[in-house]
Sequence to fold (358 residues):
Amino acid sequence: MSRIKSLLFLLALAAQVTLASATVTYAVGSCKPTLKSFTTIMAALGATPAPNVVEVCPGTYPEQIEITIPVTLEGVTANNSTQAIITVPSGGLITNDVQLWVNNAGGEVNLTNLTVDAIGYNGGTIGVYYTNSSGTMNHLTVRNQSWDGGGIGVWLQGGSANPSVTLENSNVMGFGSTGISIDTYSDTSALTATVKGNYVNTAPINGPPYPIGINFLGGGTVYITDNLITGGYQGIGVADQDLTFAAGSVSMNTVVNAAGLGIGTIPGGVSVTSNTIYNVLNDGDGISIDSSVAPVTGNTIMAAGLGIEFHCVAGSNVHSNTIQDTVDGVWDVPLAAAANTYYSVGTIRGTEDVGGCQ
Fold:
């Protein structure tokens, strides 16, 4: 090959590499005149070449979204607004009840500055559903997934790709069943999830299923930290289903005005530390723990019927908690239990079993 031909070949190869690595950005709406734009989000996601970034102009988009490629979908600021709102289309939701589904995307899908709203739709919707896909959700508002006792705000589910998902700095409000649900039916960790810095507020309780703010059902390693959960029946639930794997931590969360239980946890691998639980209604429990392994330490429980329920299982792993203004401090406590601190507690140590824990 001559030098000229070699040079031309190298230039052509460089051009191909540059083109392949270039970021493809589309817009939805008319606020970005320098970008190729579409009228719907699904049209932008399905365009060729496939986008790396889709910028969504302020407006209302009555669409059912399914994302199957790695992409960043972000709301942008224009015309003195930052509200890009995804609503239920007039014909309703087809195939499933998911408004925005990230489905086996094969790479990271990042969502930011979007509102997913099911207001007015008579169905138990799921706002955002990640299936076997990695990515970060930041500054989302997910609301009004509530009808006839159903509805999930955000659902995170792992799989064979063992994805890593983060939900942070977001508002999840007005759901009927679960604000944030995390699960994978697996006896190994098939998901790593971080849920931090979110505000979770349930719809009014109208009957079963009683709403839970954040519920981890196993099959992954999950870190639930620094969230504010208000209302509902239970603030945070951790329960391995069908003997699935569960690990991680529940730490530095605040639970206010739960109607029955602040934090309930079963599996041995999930620690509960440095959380604050205020005003559990209906003489409910601050913390219910059914593990003799996982640390339950440094928590503060104020104004509840019962501070901590040990279920005659938990013991020396539960210590250094502060319990104030409760009818009973701790309940069904093994003799080996370590010390906690009590203020204005009617009965420090009680039991519903005759003879106590054996």
In short: The domain at 58-282 is CATH 2.160.20 (Pectate Lyase C-like).
